[in-house]
C-alpha cells in the first residue's frame, strides 16, 4: 500500500487526472454541461429525492454521444414505479389460497363503523334495513368472501344465487349467528337446509320458536314448583306476577291455536301435529321448518333451499304466501321458477364478492349477460390502448428528443383503471356411463300391485305401470302420496302384498335416495368412500370418476362432511354410477344442486342409453328431461297427457277452490 500523500494535493491530482483521461477540453466540457469542480459537494444532498434501490450509475457516468441522460434516468424511475405497481397488483390477485385447505369452523370479520355503533347504542331512529359493509367470511383457511357488502332493504325479498360450494349456506349461518354486525333489535330466523328430526311433537316444535314465551313458561314452572315444595324465599310471588303480566302481554295463551292454524295450512292434520318430528319425511320436515318461521314472524327471514323435497302443490302455496310477506327475506334457491315468483332482487355470489340486481331471476340473467359483454368489451379496448401506448414507449425509449413524451405515456399507463377480463365460470359437465344392451320387453313392470304398511290403510290398489330402456318418466304428487314407496317397489326393496313385479334378469338399477346423505360415510374422503365400496381400482381411477361429477382436486380428498350440500349430492352420483347401471331410479336428484349442475344433469340423463324414472318437483328440470308425467295420488298413479302444464293448471284450480288464489 502506498503511503498517503497530503489529502488536499491528492484530491486535486486525482480530479485533474480523471479530467485528462476523459480527454475533455474546456470548450467541450462547457457544451456537455460538465465542469471541473473547484470545491467538494455533498452527494447525499443530490440523491435525497431518489428511491432506494434505483441504479444511479448510468446517470452519473455518461457515454460519448449521450446528451440527455437526466431524462433517461427519470424514464427508468417511471418504469420502475409502474413495474412495482403491477407487481403489487399481481401479489394481491394471487392471495387466493392454493394447496390443501385446513377446514375448520366458518368465521366472519367486518370493518368497524363508529357511526353505526353510535346509532345502534342510542336506540334512536331504529332502522330495519340490514347494511353489512366491508366484511370477510372464511371457512378454515378458505376465503369465501373478501371485502363484500350486503344491503337488504326492509320489506324486500332477495334471492341469493351462485355455484355450489361458494359459501351461500355459510353466509346465511354467519348472519343468523350474528357473527356479522347486525343491529340487535332486528330479529332473525334461519330455516336451515337440512332439518333434523327428534322426539319433539310437531306442534311443540313450532311453539318453541317463540323463545320469549318458552323462557317465561319455564321460569313460571320452576317458581311454581319451588313454592309448592316450600323452598321459597319470599320473592317468588312477586316474580310470578311479573311473568303472568308479560305472558298476557304477548298473548301466550293464543299461541298454540295460532301455531295449529299455520300447521293446518301447510297440510298437517290434528294427528300429524302430535307426531314427533323424526317420524316425518324430508318434505314434511321442511314444511315444519317453514311453519316455525311463519309462526315466529322475524324481521329477517333466512331460507336455505326451502323448495327442497316440497311437492309442486306446496311450492305453489309457498310462492303465493311469501309474495305477501311484510318483512325482509333472504332466500337461497336453485329453482328458477320459484325465484321468478318470489324475489324482488337477486344477489349473485361469485369471485368472493356479492353483486345485487333489481328484479326477478330472468331479469338478473339478462342484466348479468349484458354487464359481462360490456366488461369484456371495455377490457379488450383497454388492452388495445395499452398495447398502442407500449409500442410508442418501446420505440422511443432511448430517443432523447422524445424522452418527455415517453415519461408522459408511462404516467398515463400508471393512471389507467385496473380492468380484468370476464371470469368465465367453468362449464359443468356430467356423464353417466352407458350399460346399454338390447333387452326384450318387459323391462320393468308392476301388474295389479296392492301395497300397504298397515292393512287398514292401503298405499296402492291395483297399481299397473311399466318402463323400458328409452323411458324418461317423472313422478309428481303430494308429500306422503307414496312416490318413494312406488320407487322402492319398482326396485324390489319392498314386496307387493298382491300383484306382480317383473324386472328383466339383466336389469341393473342405480338408485339415488332423497336422503342420500344418510348413505354416505361423512368422516372419510370421497376417494376413500369409493375405494371401500368398489375395491380393486387405483386412486387415479377413483379421482377420474369423481371428476366426472365435479368432485375434483382437493375436494376429492376432503372429508365428505366438509362438502356443501350440492357437492355431497355429486359424490352420491359418483357412487351410484360406479357399477355402470342400465336403469336409474332417482328420488329428488336436484335437491341442493346449483342451476348449472341441474341443467348438466338433465343433459347427461338425456344422453344416457338406458331407462330413467325419477321423482322431482323442479319445473325446469322436468321440462328439460321428462317425456312422461305420472301423478301419484289417492292410491293410484295416473299418466297426464298434457305434461307439466296440465298438472300445474290442475293445482291452480284446486287452489282457487280452497281460497288460496
TrEMBL record:
<feature type="compositionally biased region" description="Basic and acidic residues">
    <location>
        <begin position="113"/>
        <end position="125"/>
    </location>
</feature>
<comment type="similarity">
    <text>Belongs to the ABC transporter superfamily. ABCF family. EF3 subfamily.</text>
</comment>
<dbReference type="InterPro" id="IPR017871">
    <property type="entry name" value="ABC_transporter-like_CS"/>
</dbReference>
<feature type="domain" description="ABC transporter">
    <location>
        <begin position="130"/>
        <end position="376"/>
    </location>
</feature>
<dbReference type="InterPro" id="IPR003593">
    <property type="entry name" value="AAA+_ATPase"/>
</dbReference>
<protein>
    <recommendedName>
        <fullName>ATP-binding cassette sub-family F member 3</fullName>
    </recommendedName>
</protein>
<dbReference type="InterPro" id="IPR032781">
    <property type="entry name" value="ABC_tran_Xtn"/>
</dbReference>
<dbReference type="InterPro" id="IPR050611">
    <property type="entry name" value="ABCF"/>
</dbReference>
<keyword id="KW-0677">Repeat</keyword>
<keyword id="KW-0051">Antiviral defense</keyword>
<dbReference type="InterPro" id="IPR027417">
    <property type="entry name" value="P-loop_NTPase"/>
</dbReference>
<dbReference type="Pfam" id="PF00005">
    <property type="entry name" value="ABC_tran"/>
</dbReference>
<feature type="region of interest" description="Disordered">
    <location>
        <begin position="105"/>
        <end position="125"/>
    </location>
</feature>
<dbReference type="GO" id="GO:0051607">
    <property type="term" value="P:defense response to virus"/>
</dbReference>
<dbReference type="GO" id="GO:0016887">
    <property type="term" value="F:ATP hydrolysis activity"/>
</dbReference>
<feature type="domain" description="ABC transporter">
    <location>
        <begin position="444"/>
        <end position="659"/>
    </location>
</feature>
<dbReference type="GO" id="GO:0005524">
    <property type="term" value="F:ATP binding"/>
</dbReference>
<keyword id="KW-0547">Nucleotide-binding</keyword>
<dbReference type="InterPro" id="IPR003439">
    <property type="entry name" value="ABC_transporter-like_ATP-bd"/>
</dbReference>
<keyword id="KW-0007">Acetylation</keyword>
<keyword id="KW-0597">Phosphoprotein</keyword>
<dbReference type="Pfam" id="PF12848">
    <property type="entry name" value="ABC_tran_Xtn"/>
</dbReference>
<keyword id="KW-0067">ATP-binding</keyword>
Amino acid at each position: 500500500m502506498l503511503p498517503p500523500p497530503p489529502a488536499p494535493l491528492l484530491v486535486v491530482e486525482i480530479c485533474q487526472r480523471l479530467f485528462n483521461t476523459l480527454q475533455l477540453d474546456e470548450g467541450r466540457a462547457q457544451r456537455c454541461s460538465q465542469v471541473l469542480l473547484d470545491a467538494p459537494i455533498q452527494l447525499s444532498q443530490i440523491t435525497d429525492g431518489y428511491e432506494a434501490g434505483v441504479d444511479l450509475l448510468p446517470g452519473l457516468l455518461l457515454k460519448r454521444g449521450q446528451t440527455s441522460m437526466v431524462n433517461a434516468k427519470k424514464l427508468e424511475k417511471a418504469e420502475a414505479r409502474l413495474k412495482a405497481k403491477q407487481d403489487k397488483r399481481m401479489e394481491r390477485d394471487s392471495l387466493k389460497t392454493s394447496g390443501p385447505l385446513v377446514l375448520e369452523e366458518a368465521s366472519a370479520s367486518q370493518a368497524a363503523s363508529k357511526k353505526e355503533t353510535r346509532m345502534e347504542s342510542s336506540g334512536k331512529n331504529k332502522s330495519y334495513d340490514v347494511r353489512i359493509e366491508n366484511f370477510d367470511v372464511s371457512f378454515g383457511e378458505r376465503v369465501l368472501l373478501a371485502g363484500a357488502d350486503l344491503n337488504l332493504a326492509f320489506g324486500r325479498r332477495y334471492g341469493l344465487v351462485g355455484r355450489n360450494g361458494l359459501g351461500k349456506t355459510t353466509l346465511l349461518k354467519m348472519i343468523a349467528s350474528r357473527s356479522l354486525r347486525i343491529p340487535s333489535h332486528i330479529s332473525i330466523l334461519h330455516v336451515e337446509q337440512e332439518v333434523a328430526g327428534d322426539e319433539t311433537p310437531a306442534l311443540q316444535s313450532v311453539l318453541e320458536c317463540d323463545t320469549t314465551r318458552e323462557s317465561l313458561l319455564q321460569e313460571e314452572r320452576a317458581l311454581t314448583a319451588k313454592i309448592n315444595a316450600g323452598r321459597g324465599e319470599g320473592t317468588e310471588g312477586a316474580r310470578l306476577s311479573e311473568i303472568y303480566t308479560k305472558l298476557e302481554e304477548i298473548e301466550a295463551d293464543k299461541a298454540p291455536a295460532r301455531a295449529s292454524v299455520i300447521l293446518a295450512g301447510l297440510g298437517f292434520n290434528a294427528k300429524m301435529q302430535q307426531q314427533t318430528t323424526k317420524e316425518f319425511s324430508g318434505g314434511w320436515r321442511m314444511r315444519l321448518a317453514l311453519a316455525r318461521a311463519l309462526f315466529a314472524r322475524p324481521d329477517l327471514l333466512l331460507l336455505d333451499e326451502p323448495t327442497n323435497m316440497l311437492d309442486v302443490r306446496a311450492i305453489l302455496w309457498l310462492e303465493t304466501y311469501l309474495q305477501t310477506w311484510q318483512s325482509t327475506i333472504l332466500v337461497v334457491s336453485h329453482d328458477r321458477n320459484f325465484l321468478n315468483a318470489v324475489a324482488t332482487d337477486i344477489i349473485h355470489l361469485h369471485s368472493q364478492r356479492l353483486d345485487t340486481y333489481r328484479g326477478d331471476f330472468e331479469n338478473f340473467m339478462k342484466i348479468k349477460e349484458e354487464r359481462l359483454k360490456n366488461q369484456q368489451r371495455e377490457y379488450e379496448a383497454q388492452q388495445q390502448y395499452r398495447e398502442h401506448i407500449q409500442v410508442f414507449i418501446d420505440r422511443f425509449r432511448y430517443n432523447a428528443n422524445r424522452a418527455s413524451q415517453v415519461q408522459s405515456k408511462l404516467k398515463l399507463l400508471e393512471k389507467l383503471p385496473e380492468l380484468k377480463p370476464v371470469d368465465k365460470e367453468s362449464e359443468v359437465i356430467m356423464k353417466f356411463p352407458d350399460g346399454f344392451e338390447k333387452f326384450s320387453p318387459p323391462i320393468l313392470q308392476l301388474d295389479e300391485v296392492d301395497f300397504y304398511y298397515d292393512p287398514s290403510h292401503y298405499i296402492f290398489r291395483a297399481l299397473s305401470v311399466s318402463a323400458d330402456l328409452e323411458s324418461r318418466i317423472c313422478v309428481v304428487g303430494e308429500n306422503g302420496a307414496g312416490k318413494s314407496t312406488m320407487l322402492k317397489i319398482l326396485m324390489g326393496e319392498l314386496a307387493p302384498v298382491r300383484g306382480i313385479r317383473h324386472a328383466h334378469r339383466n336389469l341393473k338399477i342405480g338408485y339415488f335416495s332423497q336422503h342420500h346423505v344418510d348413505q354416505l360415510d361423512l368422516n372419510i374422503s370421497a376417494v376413500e368412500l369409493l375405494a371401500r365400496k368398489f375395491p380393486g381400482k387405483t386412486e387415479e381411477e377413483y379421482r377420474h370418476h369423481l371428476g366426472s361429477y365435479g368432485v375434483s382436486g382437493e375436494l376429492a380428498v376432503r372429508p365428505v362432511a366438509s362438502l356443501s350440500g350440492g357437492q355431497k349430492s355429486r359424490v352420491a352420483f359418483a357412487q351410484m354410477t360406479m357399477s355402470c347401471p342400465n336403469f336409474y331410479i332417482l328420488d329428488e336428484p336436484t335437491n341442493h344442486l346449483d342451476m348449472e349442475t341441474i341443467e348438466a344433469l338433465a343433459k347427461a340423463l338425456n344422453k344416457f342409453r338406458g331407462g330413467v324414472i325419477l321423482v322431482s318437483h323442479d319445473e325446469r328440470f322436468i321440462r328439460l328431461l321428462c317425456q312422461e308425467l305420472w301423478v301419484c295420488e289417492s292410491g293410484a298413479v295416473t299418466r297426464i297427457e298434457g305434461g307439466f302444464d296440465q298438472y300445474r293448471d290442475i293445482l291452480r284450480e284446486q287452489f282457487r277452490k280452497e281460497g288460496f288464489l
